[in-house]
Structures are given as structure tokens and as C-alpha cells.
Amino acid sequence: MKSFAFTIMCLASCFIQGQNNAIGSNEKLVFTASYNMSGLLTDLAQVTMETNEVKTSKSTLLHLKGKARTYSKWDAFFKINDLYESYVHPNSLKPYLYKRDINEGGYYKFMKYNYNHKTNSVKSLKRKRRGDGTFWDENKNLNISSNTRDIIATLYHIRNLDIHKASIGNSDTFTVLMDNEEFKITLTLLAKETINTNIGRKECYKLAIGMNNNFLKGDNDNLLWLTADSNKIPVYAKFKVPVGNGELRIQSATGLKN
Amino acid sequence: MRLLITTLAIIAAILGLILSILPFEKIALISIILAFILGFIAFKMAQKDGANTKLVKVIFLITIIALVLSIYRSVFDKNVVENDIETIEKEKQSQEDAIEELEGLEIED
């Protein structure tokens, strides 16, 4: 009976989720990304998450933009200039177009996904740079599940979840399309904590992120703190990847919806 | 033994100086602290043996310069991102291309 009630609740939440209550159309979150170098956390890059409304002749979409740029002092050593974009439905946050343009120390890659939600498929384009400076393209048609999203749309979708209804220990799984492959991300609510951030002392949901590929390492080593208010801003994150570990700290938050 | 410690102190001091000139000011502190400890041991050993302490004093001088540079960089160097026109234009172009691509799309309500 208990599991039946839980199933009903989950199904209901899936249908109720049509409303975006957390993300405004001119929101800007700025973070500092630090990397652990010889045991010392060193500020490496600025990560920005922005939203804006875009209009086409027939519809209005929400443009979600994630940028990662190394601080100028590091540019001579290893320059990162990444741009992740997702064009989503302003209410359901369902993605329609995704673009990823990464430039990391001379390595270039461009990915584009055109979603077709009627056929549950994605038209994918991958563009890479050869050693001689010329580009090559790879076009693919991928079949996806109905709830598959790109990484940017997933991040914002997580913010739009009714976390306040979840109990400590509850988890949820999301399907993410990355590099033409679907991955499962599991989010577990570990605790409710109050932490000090650059935007003040905030009560937060502490979430553990797990991934079924080798991108994220360890159990409960990848953590995300979302403010326990209606904006659910990510204020702090700890990550452990195969090449090391680090953290993400919020610097400023403007244009919030609530 | 004294020669080995003095050599290690020189290496640590020079490494600390290089790292503090480069943007690795935090890591430089490890080298600087090590140079100070080794320099101090080398100084005491030289005093005990009645040897010349000139080289050890030079090590201390390099270490102090590295420390000042490192502290200066930690306090006054601001983390800034270069907002070059190329990137701004690229973002603008990307959005224009996306709008063109999404043109005609009828989104489900």
C-alpha cells in the first residue's frame, strides 16, 4: 500500500511538474571554480549560468546558458572557454535545442542536439578540429527516452523539482544525453544544512550526485547544495573527477524569480 | 650533510620564487616554508661548524622575496575573466543561429 501511494505520488508529480516555479528569465548566477592543486584549493575559472527569453515567430523559449572561462592569469597555461546552451520550454523546461561549444587548451569540440519529442529522437551533430585546423562533422540520429535531457536542461530541471516534498535519503534518477550517449544521474537528498556563502547564510538541501559512467568518482564525493527556498539556487558544489577534485562556490546571484 | 641541506634549501627557495612569479602563489608557500626550515637548519649547522653563512643568508633573501611576492599576489591579484569581443560575438552569433533554427517550431503547451 505504501509503495502504491508512493507510485501515485511520483506519477502525480510528473504531471504537476509542468510549471516552472524556480527559474526566472533574466537570472544570472556567477561561480568560482577551484581545483585542488597539491592539497591547496586554487581558483581556476569563472562559471556563469544565465537565462534569457528568446522569441521566434511562433513561440517563446527559455535560453539556458552555462559558461566556463579560466581567469586571465591561467590563460597562458591552459585556457578554457566553454559554452553550453539549451533552449527549453519556459514552463516544462523540456529541451528543444542544445549546443555545446568547448575550447579547452587547444582542444575544440562542438555538439548540437535537435530534439524531436514526438518521435523521441535527437538529431545530433558533432564537430571536431583536426590537427591541421580543418573540421570534421559527424551527424547521427539518436533514439532517446521521453525524459532524456541534456546536462544544462537537467541542471535547471533539478532546480525545479519539489525537493521540499522529499525525505532525507530519497533519491531520483535522471537520464542525461552526453556525447551521444545516455547516462543516468542519481540524486540523493542527504540532509538539510545551513551554510555560509557569498550571498549570505543559506539553508540548503545537501544532495549527493552519482553517475553510472566514469566521469564522477567516489560515493557521496560529488555533492551539491541547493538553497532550500523557492529559487533552489546551487550555492556550493564539491566534485571528484578522474583528474582530481575541486569545488564550485557562488559569487553572485541576480535576477532571481522569487 | 650540511652541503645537502644547503643545496635542498637553494632548490626550494628558487622553486618558491619561480612559483610566486607564476600564478601558483599558494603552491609557492609550500616551497617557501620548506626553504625557511632547511635554511634555518643549514644556518645552525654552518654556525656550529664555524663555516661561512653567506650562502644561507642569500637563501633567506630569495625566500623572503618569494614570500613577499606570494603574499602580494594572494592579496592584490584579482580573479578576472578576459571579456574579449570574439567570445561576446560568438555567443551572440550562437543565439542568432539558434533562433533561426528554432523558427517554425511549435512548442507543446
Q: What is the overall shape of chain A?
A: globular
Radius of gyration of chain B: 26 Å
Give the biggest beta sheet of chain A: 15 strands, mixed
- Determine the N-to-C terminus distance of chain A: 37 Å
**What is the SS-derived class of chain A?**
mainly beta
Strand fraction of chain A equals over 45%
> What structural class do you assign from the helix and strand content of chain B?
mainly alpha
Q: Indicate the mean pLDDT of chain B.
A: 92
Q: Please give the domain count of chain A.
A: 1
Helices and strands of chain A, in order, run as HEEEHEEEEEEHEEEEEE
How is the topology of this model organized?
The complex is a heterodimer of chains A (258) and B (109).
Chain A: H1 2-16, E1 28-37, E2 40-55, E3 60-70, H2 72-75, E4 81-88, E5 95-104, E6 107-116, E7 121-129, E8 135-143, E9 148-149, H3 151-159, E10 171-178, E11 181-197, E12 200-211, E13 223-227, E14 234-241, E15 244-254
Chain B: H1 2-21, H2 25-49, H3 54-76, H4 85-102
Helix pairs in contact in B: 1-2, 1-3, 2-3
Commentary on this structure:
Chain A contains 3 helices and 15 strands. Chain A has 258 residues and is mainly β. Chain A has a 15-stranded mixed sheet. Chain B has 109 residues and is mainly α. Chain B has one domain. Chain B starts with a helix and ends in a 7-residue tail after the last helix. The model of chain B has no long low-confidence stretch (mean pLDDT 92). The interface between A and B is medium-sized, with 38 and 27 residues.
